[in-house]
Amino acid sequence: MRQEHFIQRHQQEWADFEQWLDARAAKPRRARVTTGWRGLQDEAVPAAYRRLCQQLGLARRRGYSPQLCARLQTLMQRGHAVMYRPPLPRWQRVFEFLLADFPALVRAERGVMLASLLLFGLPLVLSFVAVQLRPELIHTLMGPPQVAELEAMYSKAAEKLGRDSGSDLAMFGFYIFNNISIGLRTYASGLLAGVGPVLAIVFNGLMIGAVAGHLQAVGLGDPFWRFVAGHSAFELTAIVIAGGAGLRLGLALLVPGRRRRVDALVEDGRRGALLCLGVFVMLLLAAFIEAYWSSISTLPAMVKYTVAGLLWTGVGLWLWRGGRDRDAR
């Protein structure tokens, strides 16, 4: 076969392979196929690489031009470097996921995340205002013993804010179990045709708003806000993200689109599981802050609010800017 015919036959697949390599170089280790991509798909790369090696061997054996052989050699070496490089150390992969992949995934699911935020935020604000206007409404959500216990946890006599007993370590363990179980249940309830996460998010918003409204109404707002200010950045954001993941799971069940329902559940369930990994870490951090920092009653309010402002700013920047190179373009 003459060289020009050889080039004409294989030119397009060389160009596709080179374009795939360029995409991998632009988005290392997490290159994504963007909307409208018609080039080489990831699953077809190994076969394309084997064909390229065969074509390089043919070009050398047939005595084609040094320029053509050099081009194929370069493509082969680039492909080898991408396909056979050693994986990242496990600790580095964990940090890469938390710092980049997780916030990018949250942004990719911005629709369900916004819906979750509204389902959580609106009931929270409405219940807070309602309890301010009609204080007796708190008893529709909590019994008198619970209300009395709540007030005792934020009274001036309380040694630790937000609790009436227990060491920091014991409460750290309690917060881990309680908060993480809420987050995971909220996500898993998406299998209940999407109704589960809606109810879970709305209920959490109602409860938090009602508790805040009651404590504010009875004059215990200052210790309450000093307690929740620090860990709320991680905890409340994690609840919203877990709710969004649950809504995505419910949509996969109800509206799979052109996918088979089982395929939609597997695909969106995998994305939800990755979101839950990030939620787990966020709730772990929230539990640590809640047990060892938020409960301190002797620190001035200004110190608590300053630290809370830094934490909220950090979480916001992380979810907004983290992993921008992972975003589809």
Describe the structure.
This protein is an all-alpha fold and 329 residues long. It has two domains: 3-83, no CATH class; 99-324, no CATH class. The protein contains eleven helices and no strands. Helix 2 (45-61) runs antiparallel to helix 3 (66-83) and helix 5 (110-133) packs parallel to helix 8 (195-217). The longest helix is centred in the C-terminal third of the chain and has 34 residues, at 221-254. The radius of gyration is 27 Å and the shape is elongated. The model is unreliable at 28-37 (pLDDT under 50).
Per the principal axes of the C-alpha atoms, what is the gross shape? elongated
Q: How far is the N terminus from the C terminus? A: 40 Å
The H-and-E topology, N to C, reads as HHHHHHHHHHH
User: How many structural units, i.e. domains?
Assistant: 2
The percentage helix is over 70%
The count of helical stretches stands at 11
Computed over alpha carbons, the radius of gyration is 27 Å
Strand tally is 0
Which stretches are poorly predicted, pLDDT < 50 over at least 5 residues? 28-37
Strand content: under 5%
Mean pLDDT: 88
Largest sheet: none
